[in-house]
Amino acid sequence: MTVPVDVLKKVKRIEIDTRKMVNNIFSGEYHTQFKGQGMTFADFREYVAGDDVRAISWALTARAGKPFIKTYEEERELTLMLAVDISGSQDFGSKNYFKGETLTYVAATLAFSAVKNNDQVGLLLFSDEVELYIPPKKGRAQVYRILRELLYFKPKRKGTKISSALDFLRGVLKKRATIFLLSDFKETGVDGKPQNSYDASLRLLERKHEVIAGIIADEAEFLFPDVGMIELQDSESGEYMMLDTSNPSFREEMKSKFKSDFDKFQKTIARSGVRSFSLEPNDEYHKALLAFFKRRKAR
Questions:
Q1: Are 79 and 120 in contact (CB under 8 A)?
Q2: Beta strand extents in the chain (DSSP E only)
């Protein structure tokens, strides 16, 4: 498929912006925190007093007539997986950026950081089903492909079901990975009511992998503006509703609902042992990322 010139230009623009961010602001932050995990076999050497007897290679010891142990080295290569929500709610933004645009920049920054660190990086795009999966690979060409899909891919569905993404990753990722789950964590069931499909799936995935949740929210979602009577359409369900935004009780109710939903999200994350950070749809997403890295380093 030929990619339109305007998309290629946008890919280049994002590359310039995010590479500058990686080189200037995130220099050292990603590398020091994501060094790879686990140990791999390196070589054999003769046993010396004080060595862990559990490391003895009994097969080689029997052949050589004297004890040898296995030595290991730290895995330096990391597998970074970007799981990005592309449901209908990502097409919302009350100012200069949609939520989906900001998540694209966050994902791009992390992808270029991975390339700079010589790590593998992959992409999963999801709505209420897995829409696209790009297996982890190294190299700049992989990042360009990821950027192109983030910008150009058109989802088939508008709903959100986070567990579908988490369960899929648990099945395909055989090696331990660091997974950035980027979403507004808004799910709506068939009855139109908010739901949480991902609690159990998140806990299961976190047992084997490191999961980091990035939640994006627009200010207008919790500080509803007073613009009188308006008709709104739910971006995922398609349902229309009339709202009286001039009513102080309504605005307070919306603010309270957002806080309640966010508190539930935080409790779910805490139960799962997952770390998280929050951001708004604007061009200062790097501050949220940097603050998260610094908090993570301090622990």
A1: yes
A2: 39-46, 68-74, 79-85, 120-126, 130-137, 178-183, 210-216, 229-233, 240-244, 275-279
Q: Which domains does the chain have, with CATH numbers?
A: 5-32+77-298 (3.40.50.410), 39-74 (no CATH)
Question: pLDDT, tens digit, for every residue of 243-291?
Answer: 777 778 877 887 787 787 888 888 888 888 899 999 999 888 888 888 8
Q: State residue 27's pLDDT score.
A: 57
> How does DSSP assign 210-231, residue by residue?
EEEEEEE--GGGTS-----EEE
Q: Are 115 and 143 in contact, with CB atoms under 8 Å apart?
A: yes
The kind and range of the H/E element at 17 are helix 5-24
The CA-based diameter of the chain, rounded to the nearest angstrom, is 88
CA 197 to chain centre: 17
- Residue 2 is classified by DSSP as P
pLDDT in tens, 196-231: 779 999 999 999 999 999 999 888 777 767 777 776
**pLDDT for 215:** 93
Quote the CA–CA distance of 75 and 261 in Å, as a whole number. 39
Cβ neighbours, 10 Å, residue 180: 21
Q: Compute, in degrees rounded to 10, the torsion defined by CA atoms 188, 193, 198, 199.
A: 160
Angle (CA) 30-34-39 rounded to 5° is 155
Measured between alpha carbons, how far is residue 60 from residues 51, 54, 68, 75, 108 in Å?
A: 16, 14, 7, 24, 48
Taking Cα atoms as reference points, which of 216, 214, 169, 181 lies closest to residue 83? 181
- Is-above-0.90 flag for pTM? no
What 3-state DSSP class applies to 32?
helix
In the block, tokens 């949480």 appear at 196
Helix, strand, or coil (residue 84): strand
Residue 29 carries which side chain, given as an amino acid letter? E
